[in-house]
Amino acid sequence: MDVRPGSERIFVTPDTDPLDGHVQWAPAKSLWLAGMTAAAIVLGPVCFSASAFVLFLATSAVTLCCGHSVGMHRKLIHANFDCPFWLERLLVYLGTLVGMAGPYGMIRLHDFRDWAQRQAACHDYSCHRAGFWRDAWWQLHCRLVLRHPPRFRLEPRLANDRFYAFVERTWMLQQLPWAALFFAIGGMDWLVWGICVRVSVCVTGHWLVGHFSHTRGEQVWIIDGVGAQGYNVRLAALIRMGENWHNNHHAYPGSAKMGLLPGQIDPGWWLIRLLEAIGLVWNVRTPHNLPERPGLRRLAGATLRDGVADAA
Questions:
Q1: Which of 49, 64, 39 is nearest to 192 (CA)?
Q2: pLDDT tens by residue, 122-148
Q3: Shortest CA distance to 10 belongs to which of 152, 144, 120, 118?
């Protein structure tokens, strides 16, 4: 099998194979989410209050937009803008509070999946092709174990960072200070809705949009010769902070702007522009200053560059 090269963090060997593997239950990941979800289902209705619901909305928005979308994904993983190191750490820490993984775990999960999807063919786990309910079980409670995986190596800037290493070791425990604060201010209502409901909804919602953004939806671009395509899931624009424009992201993975076309709402991009306006972000990468991805073609309409330019 012809295996394509990895990224700056993924290194292939002659026997590396993105197809030869099996899905295995991941106890820590599974029990973490199952516990949060059970608490949300059992305690959420009896602990509901207006203030707790507002807390849930506010903390979900901050951790998903500032943390996961801008901090973890656009900055830490893709490095599509520059900012002070203290701001990067703050944004990444907020991303950890979403409850999916620590910074190293998120990078590893993303880069392995991205590498697999760039191959001519990949395992069903890597491209959400297993069917709705099986994919839910696989993505939320399991992990893919390849017989001959590529090697993963973090760049020294991240691997040697003590703050990121600490947050990686303690990413589940990072909920505890906030749980104590919420309980002190709003009692059990705030604790349940600010931690358990938020984590279960955000993590499950992340999988749900990820499932559809790899299986169905709108497409503007196609990447020829790869095992997985991306789709735009229009209805999820606000709740996914712009991450729903996954067809655009597959076309321009290095772009800080994901809502590339008119009418495509992208709150993550709005935050980046705000930070840029006040001088905290610079060297922002967009399709205008990025090389075109190999194999990229637009399905219909204007030429690729004109289409992107019209939407900028």
A1: 39
A2: 999 999 999 999 999 999 999 999 999
A3: 152
Neighbouring residues of 33: CB distance < 8 A, sequence distance ≥ 6: 99, 140, 141, 199, 200, 203, 204
Residue 108 contacts residue 152 (beta carbons within 8 Å): yes
CA 43 to chain centre: 28
Tell me the CA distances in angstroms from 115 to 177, 198, 253, one per residue in order: 36, 30, 12
Buried b (16+ CB within 10 A) or exposed e, 206-231: bbbbbbbbbbebebbbbbeebbbbbb
Provide the 3-class DSSP secondary structure of residue 204.
helix
Q: Where are the beta strands (DSSP E) in the chain?
A: 10-11, 21-25, 142-146, 151-152, 221-223, 296-298
- Let me know the angle formed at the C-alpha of 116 by 269 and 167, rounded to the nearest 5 degrees: 55
CA pseudo-torsion sign 116, 122, 127, 128: negative
Residue with token string 């979403």:
98
Tens of pLDDT along 80-122? 999 999 999 999 999 999 999 999 999 999 999 999 999 989 9
Half-sphere exposure of 117 (CA within 13 A, CB side): 24
Q: How deeply is 137 buried, as exposed, middle or buried, from its count of CB atoms within 10 A (0-12, 13-18, 19+)? A: middle
Three-state DSSP state, 285? coil
pLDDT class of 78 with cuts at 50, 70, 90: very high
Contact 268, 287 (CB under 8 A): no
Answer with the residue of higher pLDDT: 237 or 73.
73
